[in-house]
User: Which sequence fits this backbone?
């Protein structure tokens, strides 16, 4: 019976020993965070993070060792994205038995390393309630570039844990808008700072750039004209802004002198780094999109003729201009000898680059709508006749052209003089024929 009790007691002892050993197993806890504070030996640790902005103050590496039962040399190394060692910090922890205990229930501490900013880093470690280590890190120890960094933890020279964290640049996002709040599709931006001068293409109204903290001058250009300029300060956080530029849509309406719209007129706009050309629609209108506030020269061409030049200045979000040009309706009336209208006459109005052609109506009139004023040549074809005339086109005038048409036979026209000549010729021929017949009869007799 006593042997059985001995076995039970031994089994309980082994179970308790195993449980104590399991519970007392050494453990290492590492936390990367933005905040650690200590008050009355109580450590307050911020939420874990693995990504930091290069504009933030610094990084805390919190270290906690549990159930440390022997002396330990703890080494913490910091490696930059180039693989270079930036820091090798060592903490020597004494044997707990020297303090009269079997183990340290915990050893807690942290390293603080600044990001970019001036000032020293800091190290603080507390070995249970027995000793504290508190000191500044060398002044040159800091996070000074973006990319992947590493904390490597060594215990007595053996690597036990490695933590990777990312230092990223601050993100600048700019919405490039015109003065009406619409995105500008194509533009260029220049960013000028202490560490960078960049010229970037802007597409779909959005500019994105990763930058170091600092003050930057942002300039936006449209067609090589500066339309926005502002200073942007980047500190700790990413920045999103709206850049409302001196850009708007230019609406032009081309009208004749009576106020009617002139369609299919070519509008030429000068004043940018390139010449813009477009044609008006049936309402006489045209829209030039995303135009910088600026002075422009506008020429209007109709049928290859410059019919108007204007200078305009865009200086407000709403830019609409009515431009009056030198065009008018023109009428050609074709008549014969007795002022009889000659319908179906082909009338061609000739300009340097184009010829307009139409037929006369029953009233003998050919109408040309909204043609350039000036002196031009017209060519009239009627049956076997062709007439060339230079005419002066003024305001709503009608030119009458008289053709030598006195008599018409099928597709042949005759003037009064020609009809007289033909008639005399026929009479003469008739007389000669009769005379010849009479003479012949006398000879026979």
Assistant:
């Amino acid at each position: 019976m006593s042997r059985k009790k001995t076995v039970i007691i031994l089994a309980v002892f082994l179970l308790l020993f195993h449980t104590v050993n399991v519970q007392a197993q050494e453990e290492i806890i590492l936390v990367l965070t933005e905040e650690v504070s200590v008050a009355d030996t109580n450590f307050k640790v911020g939420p874990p993070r693995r990504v930091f902005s290069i504009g933030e103050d610094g990084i805390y590496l919190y270290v906690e060792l549990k159930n440390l039962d022997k002396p330990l040399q703890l080494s913490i190394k910091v490696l930059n994205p180039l693989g270079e060692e930036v820091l090798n910090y060592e903490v020597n922890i004494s044997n707990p038995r020297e303090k009269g205990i079997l183990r340290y229930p915990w050893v807690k501490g942290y390293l603080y390393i600044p990001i970019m900013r001036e000032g020293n880093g800091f190290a603080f470690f507390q070995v249970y309630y027995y000793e504290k280590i508190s000191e500044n890190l060398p002044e040159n120890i800091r996070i000074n570039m973006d990319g992947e960094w590493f904390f490597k933890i060594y215990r007595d020279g053996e690597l036990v844990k490695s933590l990777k964290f990312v230092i990223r640049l601050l993100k600048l996002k700019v919405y490039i808008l015109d003065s009406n709040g619409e995105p500008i599709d194509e533009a260029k931006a220049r960013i000028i700072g202490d560490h960078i001068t960049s010229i970037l293409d802007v597409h779909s109204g959005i500019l994105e750039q990763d930058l170091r903290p600092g003050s930057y001058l942002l300039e936006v250009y449209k067609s090589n004209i500066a339309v926005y300029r502002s200073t942007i300060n980047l500190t700790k956080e990413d920045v999103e802004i709206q850049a409302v530029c001196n850009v708007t849509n230019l609406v032009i309406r081309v009208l004749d002198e009576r106020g009617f719209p002139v369609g299919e007129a070519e509008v030429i706009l000068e004043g940018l780094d390139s010449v813009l050309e477009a044609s008006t629609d049936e309402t006489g209108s045209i829209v030039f999109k995303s135009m910088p506030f600026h002075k422009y020269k506008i020429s209007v061409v109709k049928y290859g003729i410059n019919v108007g030049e204007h200078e305009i200045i865009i200086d407000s979000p709403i830019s609409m201009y009515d431009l009056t040009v030198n065009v008018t309706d023109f009428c050609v009336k074709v008549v014969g000898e007795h002022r009889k209208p000659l319908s179906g006459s082909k009338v061609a109005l000739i300009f340097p680059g184009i010829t307009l052609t139409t037929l006369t109506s029953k009233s003998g009139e050919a109408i040309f709508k909204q043609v350039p004023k000036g002196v031009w040549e017209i060519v009239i074809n009627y049956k076997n006749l062709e007439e060339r005339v230079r005419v002066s086109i003024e305001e709503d005038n009608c030119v009458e052209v008289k053709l030598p048409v006195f008599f018409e036979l099928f597709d042949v026209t005759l003037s009064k003089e020609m009809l007289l000549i033909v008639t005399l010729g026929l009479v003469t021929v008739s007389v000669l024929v009769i005379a010849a017949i009479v003479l012949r009869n006398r000879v026979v007799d």
